[in-house]
Amino acid sequence: MRIVMMGTGPFAVPVFRALVESEHDVPALFTQPSRGKPGSTENPTRSAAEALGVEIIAEADVNETLVRERLQSLAADLLVVCDFGQILSADTLGASRLGGINLHGSYLPKYRGAAPIQWALYNGDATTGVSVIHMTPRLDAGPCLVQTEESITADDDAVSLELRLSQLGVAAVFESIAKLHSWNGSDSIGSSQDKRLATRAPRLKKSDGRIDWRRTAEEIDRQRRAFTPWPGTFTFVPRSKGDPVRVIIDSSAALCDASTDATPGTVIRAEKDQLHVACGDESVLTIYAVQPAGKRPMDVAEYLRGRPLAVADQLS
User: Fold this and answer.
1) How many C-alpha atoms does 214 have within 13 Å on its Cβ side?
2) Under a CB-based contact definition with an 8 Å cutoff, are residues 166 and 14 in contact?
3) Beta-carbon neighbour count of residue 232 at 10 Å?
4) What is the pLDDT along the chain (316 residues), one digit of tens a residue?
């Protein structure tokens, strides 16, 4: 089958590589234009295409008439879309014989949108998965061709879970391609999504990372794991002179057997290699590593040597 890939982020890389190395013909990669300096790692799918010798077509609007005409000239049987960053119009989907499929990092219809992996972690879900949908112009709303479920472990962060799901998605995409290969093009295919069960996974904002200490320690630790590496999970540490300093929490854990009646955000211990901070519902968060604004990551012991914190200091 002749397949055009559309992808930008790291989630798309395993399936892209697998397609190029398979019996399928992959003439081109459509991707987002680079916004960084030459050699930037912001577009890992583009980097993979360069290594694999696949033509790269980087356009800000894949639905623009001239871009769509270029896509049509490739005479693709199918578009495979993953972590692309653009929504395809009906006309663009019609530029290939079988339309397009999308590999999505959730068990749809849950977590439609740009950040399904992060919001599944943030909300404390026990399981997630991957879905391959036959695409429609509505965001993540097409029928599901293949779905695979995956457990979320207590050690998972957004990086580890994304890697595992991206690898899980390879087999799901190839199974979907096989289904479309034998499809007559007119009968219904796949399982329709129940839109009543749909939930949103909006694109992350920097402000999503700010800690609300009224949340429980477990919820804040999930936030840290969900928002690694960006936007990070951060608080503001007071200084005797000047404005508070923004600090990202790099490593932490909820102390399930500890409790306190201190105001949420209060430092209740600051010694050796740990900070203990009061959280909502009388819970306690233990912090092991941080990254002050403009500085490198460091463990708490090193941080406290340069910026002492005292019991009763209030994080904001």
Assistant:
1) 0
2) yes
3) 19
4) 999 999 999 999 999 999 999 999 999 999 999 876 544 457 999 999 999 999 999 999 999 999 999 999 999 999 999 999 999 999 999 999 999 999 999 999 999 999 999 999 999 999 999 999 999 877 788 999 999 999 999 999 999 999 999 999 999 999 999 999 999 888 899 999 999 999 999 999 999 999 999 999 999 999 999 999 999 999 999 887 888 999 999 999 988 778 889 999 999 999 888 999 999 999 999 999 999 999 999 999 999 988 878 899 999 8
CATH, domain range 3-197: 3.40.50.170
CA distance 237 to 144: 47
CB 284 within 8 A of CB 263: no
Q: pTM for the complete prediction?
A: 0.94
* Backbone phi, psi, residue 170, to 5°: -60, -50
Query: Of the candidates 215, 286, 226, which has an alpha carbon nearest to the alpha carbon of residue 256?
Result: 286
Contacts of 3 (CB under 8 A, 6+ apart): 19, 24, 25, 26, 76, 77, 78, 79, 80, 177
Q: Where are the domains of the chain?
A: 3-197, 206-306
What would the two tokens of residue 227 be?
Answer: 């928002």
Q: Choose the CATH number for 206-306 among 3.10.25.10, 3.10.180.10, 3.40.50.2000, 1.20.1080.10.
A: 3.10.25.10
